[in-house]
Every structure is written in structure tokens, then in C-alpha cells.
Design brief:
Largest sheet: none
Order of helices and strands: HHHHH
Shape: globular
Helix content: over 70%
Radius of gyration: 15 Å
Distance between the termini: 29 Å
Oligomer: single chain
Structural class: mainly alpha
Strand content: under 5%
Number of strands: 0
Length: 84
């Protein structure tokens, strides 16, 4: 394994990180929108939770606060559970 990162590897990692943030925001919006049907909301939750490790590694939750109390609690609980 090389310690040097190629430009394409760095670009690929940046794209994945950007996709994680986009996925989080899109799925959070779906979950918070009262017009979202329950089956869609249930599909959005695991997708939202799946990107949390990437966002945590990027320090997103150190920079930004989730204003919705229920979503903030879900994210906090999931991150705590993953530390165990």
C-alpha cells in the first residue's frame, strides 16, 4: 500500500465525502417533511444513518448543529452507539 495519494484517489475521496453530505441533507429533508409518506421516511432513515461515520470523520458535527430536536437526538444516539 502506497503512502502517496494520487490526484484521482484524492478526487474520488472528495467526491465520496461530498456525496455523503448531500445524502445526509436529502434524507434529512425527506424525514423532516410532514408530506413525506411513511414508507419513504422509513427508507430514508438507514441511508441517513449510513453516512454518519463519514460526516463525523470530516468534523461536520463539530461545525454544525442539527436544529430539529428529534433528528439531533437520533444522530447523537447513533453516533454514541457506534462508539461502543
Amino acid at each position: 500500500m502506497s503512502l502517496l495519494t494520487t490526484d484521482s484517489e484524492a478526487a474520488s475521496r472528495e467526491l465520496a465525502e461530498s456525496d455523503a453530505l448531500t445524502d445526509f441533507v436529502v434524507n434529512a429533508q425527506l424525514m423532516l417533511d410532514p408530506a413525506t409518506p411513511e414508507p419513504v421516511r422509513r427508507e430514508a432513515e438507514p441511508r441517513l444513518l449510513a453516512v454518519l461515520p463519514t460526516l463525523q470523520a470530516l468534523g461536520v458535527f463539530d461545525l454544525f448543529a442539527i436544529r430539529d430536536p428529534a433528528l439531533a437526538a437520533m444522530v447523537r444516539d447513533e453516533l454514541l452507539e457506534r462508539r461502543r
